[in-house]
Amino acid sequence: MPFQCDVCRKDFATQQAFDVHMKNHVAGKKTYNCTVCDKKFLRPALLRQHLRTHTGEKPFQCNHCEKKFTQSGTLQSHIRTHTGEKPYECNLCEKKFKRAESLRRHFQSHTENKKPFECTHCGKRFAESSYLRVHIRLHTGEKPFECTVCNKTFASTSHLRFHVRTHSGEQKRSECTMCSKTFSHPQGLRYHLRAAHTGERPFECTECHKTFASTTNLSTHIKTHTGEKPFECTVCDKKFSQDAHLRVHFRMHTGEKPFECTHCQKKFTQSSHLRIHARTHTGEKPFECTACYKTFNSTSTLRSHVRLHTEEKPLECTVCHKKFSQDQALRAHLRTTHTGEKPFECTECHKRFSSTGALRSHLLHNHTTEKPFECNMCDKKFRQGHVLRAHIRTHTGEEPEVPFQCTACNKKFRARSEMLAHFVVHTGEKPFKCSVCNKGFMKASNLRQHVLTHTDEKPFECTSCPKKFVKKGDLLNHTRTHTGEKPFECTLCNKKFSIERALRRHLRTHTGERPFKCTECQKAFASASYLRIHLQTHTVEKKFECTHCEKKFAQKDNLLKHTRTHADT
């Protein structure tokens, strides 16, 4: 093991050489002070080396790559990265190293007390006192190393060096051979390879055997077992397992949003949120589902989507114990079914909504004429991206992707949620119950509309007359009575209708289809309204009696028709 001088950090191969050197550092010897920071040195040579940290002077240049250094010793260590020379050998296992510091660090793996330096704040132990000093700054918040270009401060010189490369253009030196992504440090590249390409997770938790791609992630995970949260917020006393989490949390108190989007100037508290947001501008969706090949702009949305395939539902409603695969679905369920909360307010008309999706839809259809999605083939513009995608297929002839198929009737759907909503047609299940009258519905949207019948709320008002409606669709149908518009045309006889269901009912006069069957007598009808009228013949009192033959009828018009049979005779 080499010997290092604690005064000047010089290394020696033998005890004898070290002892001779230490005689230079005798008590009371004249010191040489730095005029910039008042640091003291025992020899002028050491002071000269130190001054270069202030002046930036680097007189020692590598003849292999022209990189410059402040000290000749540092240059010699660097040259070994080119030559591959490893002059420092462990006398216990014969492993070799390029630098004496690396050998010292390795040598501690053979000693009984591998990490003798303990943090008094959190109990974490370190192999060297220098590592402990850097770690303690996580607790104190001290960042003594400042970038001379942008004045950003750092807790360690190594972090400062990595940062400086962002100004010099040297920061991206390690390139991934699989996707060409570059990294400022080989460690970042190694982690990227495991996380993005190989899937290797070599670090295992001894408690639960969960594996991780990096030691950092493993260390963070271990705290979930120990419950250790050494980092405390000075404002609200909330504690965190990681210093980074505390820093992000603290921005809630300060309002600081240091990460700004260069496209739209929107600001974020976390760099990860900015990266995800930036993909809304670039359209990048690097995370692909292996089941249906759908792509996503973040790993969290991919994980949430994958649960639709696995049918995993880890999130449970605490009120009714219904389970959900996605967090936003659970939150929406709580608001629409239990709390009635509508936290999202329209800034134009102050109407409130239970979800951001409902608010966005409201804004698009009621308050904006903006159509940001433009077709690059015909310049037609659209309010919503999915409408543009459907339109583009009219140019390309591409069939829409329909990966989800109903097992009962083989009908296909683009989304699993659409398929599940359709499936209740076969099962007859009505899982959405009205809390007022207990009536069941197949869809949550139908329940919401039904609830309005109890409140007498009719939010959709006709602009031509004072009439109001519970459903927006009913308002649109009514509006056509003013405009005379009949957009639904029969392809067989060209007759036009203002309401789509009227066209469907009319088409049955051509096809002869009668899909609505009476369960009592099996008589079939072309429309649901005709079936309802017919059902009264089975259930409703027949109060209309023929004066000629005493036959009774449930409806007056049927009695009149019958009466004519007596007149004919």
UniProtKB/TrEMBL annotation:
Leader sequence range is none
For this chain's UniProt record, which GO biological process terms are given?
A: regulation of cytokine production; regulation of immune system process
Q: Which GO terms describe its cellular component?
A: nucleoplasm
Answer yes or no on keyword Metal-binding. yes
Which cellular compartments is it found in? Nucleus
Task: Tell me the keywords, alphabetical order.
Answer: DNA-binding, Metal-binding, Nucleus, Repeat, Transcription, Transcription regulation, Zinc, Zinc-finger
Query: Which InterPro entries does this chain map to?
Result: Znf_C2H2_sf, Znf_C2H2_type
**Molecular function GO labels:** DNA-binding transcription repressor activity, RNA polymerase II-specific; RNA polymerase II cis-regulatory region sequence-specific DNA binding; zinc ion binding
Where does the protein principally reside? nucleus
What are the residue boundaries of the C2H2-type domain, all occurrences included? 3-30, 32-59, 60-87, 88-115, 117-144, 145-172, 174-202, 203-230, 231-258, 259-286, 287-314, 315-343, 344-372, 373-400, 404-431, 432-459, 460-487, 488-515, 516-543, 544-569
Please give the superkingdom of this protein's source. Answer: Eukaryota
Coiled-coil ranges (or none): none
Please give the PANTHER family that the UniProt record associates with this protein.
Answer: C2H2-TYPE DOMAIN-CONTAINING PROTEIN, ZINC FINGER AND BTB DOMAIN-CONTAINING
The UniProt entry's sequence similarity note says:
Belongs to the krueppel C2H2-type zinc-finger protein family.
Biological role: May be involved in transcriptional regulation.
Identify this protein by name.
Answer: Zinc finger protein 26-like isoform X1
